Automatic annotation (TrEMBL):
<dbReference type="InterPro" id="IPR050967">
    <property type="entry name" value="Thiamine_Salvage_TenA"/>
</dbReference>
<dbReference type="InterPro" id="IPR004305">
    <property type="entry name" value="Thiaminase-2/PQQC"/>
</dbReference>
<dbReference type="Pfam" id="PF03070">
    <property type="entry name" value="TENA_THI-4"/>
</dbReference>
<keyword id="KW-0784">Thiamine biosynthesis</keyword>
<dbReference type="InterPro" id="IPR016084">
    <property type="entry name" value="Haem_Oase-like_multi-hlx"/>
</dbReference>
<comment type="pathway">
    <text>Cofactor biosynthesis; thiamine diphosphate biosynthesis.</text>
</comment>
<comment type="similarity">
    <text>Belongs to the TenA family.</text>
</comment>
<dbReference type="InterPro" id="IPR027574">
    <property type="entry name" value="Thiaminase_II"/>
</dbReference>
<feature type="domain" description="Thiaminase-2/PQQC">
    <location>
        <begin position="16"/>
        <end position="219"/>
    </location>
</feature>
<protein>
    <recommendedName>
        <fullName>Aminopyrimidine aminohydrolase</fullName>
        <ecNumber>3.5.99.2</ecNumber>
    </recommendedName>
</protein>
<comment type="function">
    <text>Catalyzes an amino-pyrimidine hydrolysis reaction at the C5' of the pyrimidine moiety of thiamine compounds, a reaction that is part of a thiamine salvage pathway.</text>
</comment>
<dbReference type="GO" id="GO:0009228">
    <property type="term" value="P:thiamine biosynthetic process"/>
</dbReference>
<dbReference type="GO" id="GO:0050334">
    <property type="term" value="F:thiaminase activity"/>
</dbReference>
<keyword id="KW-0378">Hydrolase</keyword>
<dbReference type="GO" id="GO:0005829">
    <property type="term" value="C:cytosol"/>
</dbReference>
Amino acid sequence: MAGLFDRLKTDCSSEWNAYTRHAFVTSMADGTLPQPAFRTYLQQDYLFLIHFSRAYALAVYKAPGLADMRQALAGLKTIMDVEMDLHVELCATWGITKDELEHMPEASETLAYTRFVLESGLRGDLLDLQVALAPCILGYGEIGQQNRAATPHGPMAAAYQRWFGEYASDEYAEAASDFADWMNRTADVYLTEARYSNVRRIFSQATRLEADFWQMGLNAAD
Ligand SMILES: Cc1ncc(C[n+]2csc(CCO)c2C)c(N)n1
């Protein structure tokens, strides 16, 4: 049987495509995305990652065994030690400091998405939480692979190239595939057909919140 991730992607294909092929992504790939859109996205994404780290910390707590605890801890460390640094580095080129980033007002889209993920995990078990986290981790993996050969043009080319470079890397592809395996293994233990409709609802909602997050960036350039 195919793993849970493939099943969810098939069942939520329209939401999934709207997210992974969003105009924000395609215009980043050709370099036409306006700077204010990217800058707003990146600033909000820093706040997103703070709450996403809390969600990973919740996964440590919700883990039923030591192996799952370690897997969640490794994810938490990657976000706090690697991913947040990319944002700090890119924002520094516009003179925005780490401290300013941390204290930016949070957009409704950031609030909605991060608190939805946390709520899904608080209310449910590790599987519900992994499914809420999945569009974020696995979607960026797909976006990176789809745009491996992208050669953005124009004044933002270097920043967009740097961004794609992070998610198109072999290391990232491996981290994403480890996450999919981890979620699929949890599903092998916990998923029942009776539960599936709820799991699918969580995945669909988180995927739609990802598309809204891109849209928030685009709206900032209007
Ligand atoms: C809105 C939004 N969605 C997804 C990611 C990607 N992301 C978030 S945490 C993480 C590391 C997981 O190990 C990755 C790749 C993002 N930055 N912002």
